[in-house]
Amino acid sequence: MKDLTPARSTLDPIEIASRDEISALQLKRLKWSLRHAYDNVPFYKNSFDSAGVHPDDLHDLSDLAKFPFTVKTDLRDNYPFGMFAVPQDQVKRIHASSGTTGQPTVVGYTANDLENWGNVVARSLRAAGMCPGDMLHNAYGYGLFTGGMGIHLGADALGLSTVPISGGMTPRQVRLIEDFKPKGITVTPSYALSILDEFNAQGLDPRDCSLQVGIFGAEPWTNAMRLEIEQAFDMHAVDIYGLSEVMGPGVSMECVESKDGLHIWEDHFYPEIINPETGQVVADGEQGELVFTSLTKEAFPIIRYRTRDLTRLLCGTARSMRRMEKVTGRSDDMIILRGVNVFPTQIEELLMQIDALSPHFQIELTRPDRMDQMRILTEIADAGVQLSARSDAASHLSALVKQSVGISVKIDVGDIGAVPRSEGKAVRILDKRPKT
Ligand code: DLL
């Protein structure tokens, strides 16, 4: 793999500023953001007033802990535009979450917000090793989802030539990668695996293709998956994180030269980690739930938003801004099976250890005879895997899960294609247990 480290001279000065400079900027912007939310969004006025705090009470960054949290239901309760802080004619773009679990959450951006978003995504793409003039194959979905258009905004700001292919039509994805020869690809890691399968199905060696870096996010993925993809494509694989409520892709980004977690663009997004049970802020280095406060957003300021993503904050390395450890799961995705907590990423990590199995998987939860059961559906890695090797692989995986997670699971190893594919975020868990 080529060294794609960006030249230091190309970075935004704030990326390598001193911690004091970053904190001073954060404090100034945080004061503005709290005031802006309080003055312009009735929800924030009510929630601050009920908690007995006022924007003027913030003297220090740590004072933020006095302010109340915002949660997803607050956004849903204010559907569609109740959380917007500017008149509608200043809202230049609207995105929304898919809303598979209820009311969609709607977010908006002013012209300045779009410019800031473009800049943080440009910074992220540069951190991945993309340079002005490089070609990017953008396979995140375009539409209300922030992935496609958010990346596109940053690609324009950085000066890339972008192929806005969006998700789906996998044979065409391969065709265009072969014909156009992009340097980078932006896509969910699970859909990257489908593209990989398609290369193999067409008899093409993905290691021979032009791609030098894959920028993967929008769903959890493991370092084991990173190795698998890096080897399969002979390219770097880096992690990009974000969420629509806070902006979209580009809230934090892993640097290609270090691959040691994601630097949070702290000049726009202020992170805290809290104990999800007590709501108390925990020290850097401790695991907990990630909470974000926007520092510059005009249309949709967000104060202490509980992301449900579990991670920890670490000091800066390749950049001065703090890192967050790779998100291995959301509290919503944590399966509690007979008293044991399990995240799908733990299964992914174990699955990767078995050569005869493909990395595609889905977890099904059922409750026969009032006992929770987990079934893992996966597939053979290639058509040449014999029946006996299949059952050996299933026993091997079941033993690994028993040993490292501590639960008994049923494993089904199907033919290639047995696990339903998604063209965006993978659906990892099918919960068929009766709702109690
Ligand atoms: O997924 C934004 C995005 C698009 C990020 C493209 C990266 C690339 P939402 O649809 O609002 O926004 O979903 C946000 O997805 O709270 C996490 O649970 C999860 N997520 C996003 N990026 C990562 C990542 C976009 N790199 C939710 N690792 C977040 C793990 C991620 N989970």
TrEMBL record:
Domain of life per record: Bacteria
InterPro entries on file: Adenylate-forming_Reductase (IPR051414), AMP-bd_C_sf (IPR045851), AMP-dep_Lig_C (IPR028154), AMP-dep_synth/lig_dom (IPR000873), ANL_N_sf (IPR042099), PA_CoA_lig_proteobact_actino (IPR049623), PA_CoA_ligase (IPR011880)
Reaction(s) catalysed by this chain's protein: 2-phenylacetate + ATP + CoA = phenylacetyl-CoA + AMP + diphosphate
Catalytic class of the enzyme: ligase
Pathway in which the depicted protein is active: Aromatic compound metabolism; phenylacetate degradation
Domain annotation AMP-dependent ligase C-terminal: ranges: 339-433
Residues annotated as domain AMP-dependent synthetase/ligase: 94-293
EC assignment: 6.2.1.30
Keywords noted in UniProt: Ligase, Nucleotide-binding
CDD domains: PaaK
SUPFAM superfamilies according to UniProt: Acetyl-CoA synthetase-like
GO molecular function, one term: nucleotide binding
GO aspect biological process, one term: phenylacetate catabolic process
NCBIfam families: PA_CoA_ligase
Function: Catalyzes the activation of phenylacetic acid (PA) to phenylacetyl-CoA (PA-CoA).
Family: Belongs to the phenylacetyl-CoA ligase family.
Record text on subunit structure and interactions: Monomer.
Name this protein carries in UniProt: Phenylacetate-coenzyme A ligase
